[in-house]
Design a protein that fits this description.
Strand order of the largest sheet: 4-3-6-5
Number of strands: 17
CATH topology of the largest domain: Triger factor/SurA peptide-binding fold
Shape: extended
CATH class of the largest domain: Mainly Alpha
CATH architecture of the largest domain: Orthogonal Bundle
Largest sheet: 4 strands, antiparallel
Distance between the termini: 35 Å
Structural class: alpha+beta
Number of helices: 26
Helix content: 40-55%
């Protein structure tokens, strides 16, 4: 959440210490104890230095200690009120805990290698054919499916069968209905990593060995490759013909031809024509703008037409399954340098299979430190239940979810039981026994990785001071924000009676230099309607909190009413309706203005007239009183001898 990240920013400026009592020793003595929580010298030194790096002028130790103690007192109050046990807090803190640990799990060498491999592949595209079988089905085990695909591969390799005919007959890839087994040019980082590895590493004209992924069994043939075309920045105009009859198709053809003639004759700009004529709701309103795109992003016919153009050139009308198009090529560019693309590529590497590969490598040393214990009884139980029902039915899932006493995987003393995995399985329908076992093993590995990650984070908390300090910053920052909102910020904003009382006691702080108009202003599309609306308000004694609703009901969207408080010279409309100024120019569709339920006041009448200033001052007063209470409530002990060691 944004407000919690903001809290961490506050913390960086004020700084904070650990919330758990750490064992002090001669090398790391306690510099202070606030509300029973020890702050070791090392952490205080770290936070003090960090604070001063972020300040324009270095803060003295005495100044910093005061703000630090006040900060810790708020955190102590938050802990006493158990704000750290609130579900929202726990969820967000756990998210920060995981995110802050990620850099420690990253294999920078592996990441850089992945980035370079993908960047190199971006320079060419691979023309690919694809045939896919499910991992298993009612009649075939995974091993039998693999054997089936191996047989098809042999037939193709020996010239006894046509790849595309077999793809049309056997492939379960949904796209086969459109492409007949010809994927077209594969672009780097658009398919799962394991699939891409085979595509880019298979020689031209070759059939790759059968590939198994979580999605099924794959037979891949590489026909050739080409240099990447780079990217094109284009706009288009679309006339939709999908699912249309012949009469409408002919009408759309006539329309697109007329648009093309107007463009060629320079009778209109492309952007204006797109806004007026295009039936693409996404780009039409933006003048047909599609932005930059590369190979593989558009349907083949559209891509071919776009990349055939030079900057400034307009295509002739052409068709796709969507309808008739005209394209304007605005610009072309090649692949950017690696340094430019690195941030985007790094983000891509943290998604999908590559993210799993990176995390597995990063957690490898922790996996050795905390080896996982897999219970084979759990897998046997899954197979037995699914076999009994024939497939993963709701009843089978419910039975597996009931096996709460059977451990499935244990890492560093923490266990995930079969019941938890069974509950996840019960929400899926994966088909036969082997598919269900595939699903179970996938979930098991996910839990094993999560438990290993948890063990690694626990190790970081104990053994990596920098991680522990930063995590405590977030913990304290979130608690600081929550307790301050509860006791001061949100409370002050909602306490209207308190603000009014404060205003009455400090009226002289809020004096104006000039009178102001206080009331409402009606805006209308013309003078007669403005006068009628103003008369309606004054003659019907409408309560202020009903004004907007009543006027909308009576006049629709042709009239609006707004509360106003302004001095002469601060607002042209107020000058006109209240201070005899010149009539202002229309504001959008609003051409006429009338004052209602208003008056000129010399000074603010209540807190609402100076709400912003009163709210800030009232908040400061509440905060001062609250901190005084906290200082009286919680003991603070500062070890001056240790404090002198802070540099």
């Amino acid at each position: 959440m944004l407000h919690k990240k903001f809290a961490a920013g506050i913390l960086a400026a004020l700084a904070t210490g650990t919330l758990v009592s750490l064992m002090a020793n001669a090398k790391d003595p306690v510099v202070m104890t606030v509300a029973g929580h020890d702050v070791p010298l090392s952490e205080f030194q770290y936070l003090y230095n960090k604070n001063n790096i972020q300040q324009q002028s270095k803060q003295s130790i005495d100044e910093y200690v005061k703000s630090f103690v006040d900060y810790k007192l708020r955190v102590a109050q938050a802990l006493e009120e158990r704000l750290d046990t609130m579900p929202e807090y726990k969820k967000e803190f756990e998210q920060h805990r995981l995110e802050l640990a990620e850099p420690y799990f990253e294999d920078s060498v592996a990441l850089d290698s992945m980035i370079r491999v993908v960047y190199d592949r971006m320079h060419y595209n691979v023309d690919t054919d694809h045939l896919m079988l499910p991992l298993s089905d009612a009649d075939h085990t995974p091993e039998q499916q693999q054997a089936r695909l191996d047989s098809l591969r042999t037939l193709i390799k020996e010239g006894k069968a046509d790849f595309y005919e077999l793809a049309k007959k056997y492939s379960v890839d949904p796209s086969v209905k459109v492409n007949g087994g010809h994927l077209g040019y594969v672009v780097a980082n658009t398919y799962p990593a394991s699939f891409e590895e085979v595509v880019f590493n298979t020689p031209d004209g070759e059939l790759a060995p059968v590939l198994r992924t979580r999605y099924g069994w794959h037979l891949i043939r590489v026909n050739g490759r080409r240099n990447d075309q780079g990217e094109v920045k284009a706009s288009h105009i679309l006339k939709v013909t999908r699912n249309a009859n012949d009469e409408i198709k002919a009408k759309k053809k006539h329309q697109i031809d007329s648009i093309y003639k107007a463009l060629v004759a320079n009778k209109t700009t492309f952007a204006d024509a797109a806004k007026r004529e295009s039936e693409d709701p996404g780009s039409g309103r933006n003048g047909g703008e599609l932005g930059w795109f590369g190979s593989g992003r558009m349907v083949p016919e559209f891509e071919k037409a776009a990349f055939a153009l030079t900057p400034g050139e307009i295509s002739k009308p052409f068709t796709t399954d969507f309808g008739w198009h005209i394209i304007l090529c605005q610009d072309r560019r090649g692949i950017a340098p690696l340094d430019t693309l690195r941030p985007r590529l790094e983000s891509m590497m943290h998604q999908g299979e590559r993210a799993e590969m990176l995390e597995t490598r990063g957690l490898a040393k922790f996996a050795k430190r905390y080896p996982a214990k897999i219970n084979p009884v759990a897998a046997d139980s899954v197979r037995a239940v699914i076999t009994r029902y024939g497939k993963l039915t709701p009843q089978a899932g419910a039975q597996l979810a009931s096996y709460t006493s059977i451990p499935a995987v244990t890492v560093n003393g923490k266990t995930v039981g079969l019941g938890e995995i069974g509950s996840q399985m019960s929400r899926s329908r994966t088909g036969d026994v082997e598919s269900a076992m595939e699903f179970y093993n996938m979930l098991l590995n996910n839990h094993k990785r999560a438990l290993t990650r948890e063990a690694a984070i626990s190790w970081l908390e104990k053994n990596e001071p920098a991680y522990r300090y930063l995590l405590n910053e977030y913990r304290d920052g979130m608690l600081y924000f929550d307790i301050s909102s509860k006791k001061v910020w949100d409370y002050a904003n909602k306490d209207v009676a308190g603000q009014q009382k404060y205003f009455e006691e400090h009226r002289n702080k809020y004096l104006w230099n000039a009178p102001k108009y206080k009331g409402y202003v009606i805006s209308a599309i013309n003078d007669s309607l403005a006068s009628v609306a103003a008369n309606y308000v004054t003659t019907n004694n409408i309560a202020p909190d009903s004004l907007v609703r009543k006027l909308r009901t009576e006049f629709g969207n042709n009239v609006k009413i707004e509360r106003a408080l302004a001095a002469k010279g601060e607002n042209a409309v107020i000058d006109y309706v209240a201070f005899h100024g010149f009539r202002p120019a229309p504001v959008g569709r609003w051409a006429a203005f009338r004052p209602v339920l208003g008056k000129i006041i010399e000074q603010p009448e209540d807190a609402g007239d100076v709400r912003g200033a009163v709210s800030v001052d009232y908040q400061k007063e509440l905060e001062t009183k609250w901190l005084e209470e906290l200082r009286s409530k919680y003991p603070v002990k500062i070890n001056q001898k240790v404090l002198k060691k802070v540099k």
